[in-house]
Fold each of these.
Amino acid sequence: MSKKEIQVTCPCCDVELLVDVHTQQVLRQRQPGEHGDEQAGWQSASSRVEGRGDRATDAFDAALGSEVRRERDLDDLFADAKKKVRKRQERDL
């Protein structure tokens, strides 16, 4: 917690709020029963992020493969266009 944030406990419901002083936005709230082990919470969040990494890697690999195919397909289209131009030039001569 920095000087820009304050932690407040609601006297009515005992919810802990982390509030940004400058924007007056609630950054985090924690219900009364959620005070468990901070390390366990960190590990849980870390495992969720790692799971996203696998999907992100798969998506990146798919996009990279698409770009490689796209380059090859464009090269093929360009080669075909050059052949058509040559045939027209030979026909016109």
Amino acid sequence: MRKLETVIEINASVEDVWNVLMDHKAYPNWNPFIKQISGSTRPGEKLSATIQNEGKKPMEFAPIVLVNETNKEFRWKGKLFVKGLFDGEHYFILEKIGASKTRFTHGEQFTGMLTGVILKMIGEDTKTGFEAMNSSLKTLVEWKVN
């Protein structure tokens, strides 16, 4: 298993961060990495998602929601072609670290036979995409609460 993880502190409550994070319809307006998400966010349900790193082609996938714990965690698992080749468990974790401060952890755990090869090709771009999303989320949430 390999993991990519990023962390950013956002000067807003976990509720404010959660509300923006879970407003998937607004993603095309602000999110530079996850271009769209649609579908039910209940655990066990399938989403439709499109991610795109800067300068790359968009990738569409249909992950299954694993966790949706309000104001705490949203997690899904997707796969490339068939289970076991290159699977990713994508997660967003929110932690209250002050009255109006949230630690936002955004990452993905990868498993499967092709993990090493594929991560060598896309790992740095993927981490850059996470960081770009985190930065845009921080900017938007802090702008909304001030």
Amino acid sequence: MRLVVFTMSNEPRRFSFQDSLEEILGSTNVYFQPPENVKLIFPAIIYTKRAGDYRYADNRSYTRIQGYDVMVISKDPDFVDTLDIPDRFPMCRFDRHFVSDNLNHDVFVIYY
């Protein structure tokens, strides 16, 4: 019987991801799954977890990369173009753009 030990190794990785997003934005207005009562300051980045990417061998998962939905919110419709998000994350794709409450939302899917 093989013993599998689970660690909290994703937490430091998420914190590193947060630091990278703050560096890209140039401020600390980066929020991970913020509750509704948090007052956001714009421009801002909100990110949430999504399904990870698994690689399999010998009928087992041998690696997993965490996925995130990353939303850049700004009043300026061209603000996201000033950020180098796709250049900073090799496993990144632009998902969609929409406007809500007169704010521009650009959503990326990033595996980190």
